[in-house]
Amino acid sequence: MKYPKLRELKEAIISLFSRPYTSPFPKNGHKPFPGYRGKPVVDEDNCVGCETCANVCPSGAITFQDDPERRIRIIRRDYGKCIFCGKCEEHCITGKGVKLSDEIFDLSCFDRNEVVETQERELLICENCGAIITTKEHMRFIHAKLGPKAYASILNLNILNERLQLARSEDVAATIQDDLKRKDMFSILCPNCMRKIQLKTLL
Ligand code: SF4
Ligand code: SF4
Q: Where in the sequence is the domain holding 140, given as residue range(s)?
């Protein structure tokens, strides 16, 4: 015959009359220790929609979808899939687009859709072939980072022209044909279309 282990029996009796080790959540809020990795929080002013965090997220919690018709990129963050690894914060190109908070238990819910967030960013689209270049905020971030060196790229110059309204992209877009001409260099073009023009002018 097997006798109950006395040590476990003693523990069980003590536990019956002692207070629980866990905190009464949600009555008393969770008090995290310093450096605790909780829910990532997006800073709308510093997230440029570059998709880097989606590429490094190991659990697939961050995804993005481009909608060329509406000219927007939708970034979807599903915190039900997040493992709080901090890779998104670590690799964010602006260094401030997303930061892990100390909030985690407040994410508890019955409907997983409640812990999904989305952001929208305006797309930069090639005026000739319709290819998606990136988001406008991403290009502005690159400009700010490079300073005057950014204008070594004709695409960057054209974006600046568009912002200053020296050449309005809608007017130019109406004239662009598949048969790209040298003058089309002053439109917003993807690197492929820009290369085609450069090759033509060289030949
Ligand atoms: S700016 Fe940062 S948070 Fe925003 S999409 Fe890029 S990597 Fe992600
Ligand atoms: S903390 Fe990790 S799992 Fe969560 S969204 Fe960021 S990269 Fe993905």
A: 126-194
Residue owning the nearest CA to atom 2 of ligand 2: 85
pTM tops 0.90, yes or no: no
Residue with tokens 């997983």: 112
Q: Is the CB of 55 under 6 A from ligand 2?
A: no
The tens digit of pLDDT for each residue in 27-63 reads 877 788 888 899 999 999 999 999 999 999 999 999 9
Classify residue 22: in a domain, yes or no: no
Atom of ligand 2 nearest to the CA of 87: 7
Region for residue 60 given its phi and psi (left: phi exceeds 0; alpha: psi -120 to 50; beta: otherwise): left
| CATH number of the domain enclosing 91 | 3.30.70.3270
Q: Which candidate, 148, 105, 132, 140, places its Cα nearest to that of 192?
A: 132
Whether 82 lines ligand 2, by a CB cut-off of 6 Å, is: yes
- Please give the number of the atom of ligand 2 that sits closest to the Cα of 77: 5
Are residues 113 and 47 part of one domain?
yes
**Domain tally, the chain:** 2
Q: Is 83 touching ligand 2 by the criterion CB < 6 Å? A: yes
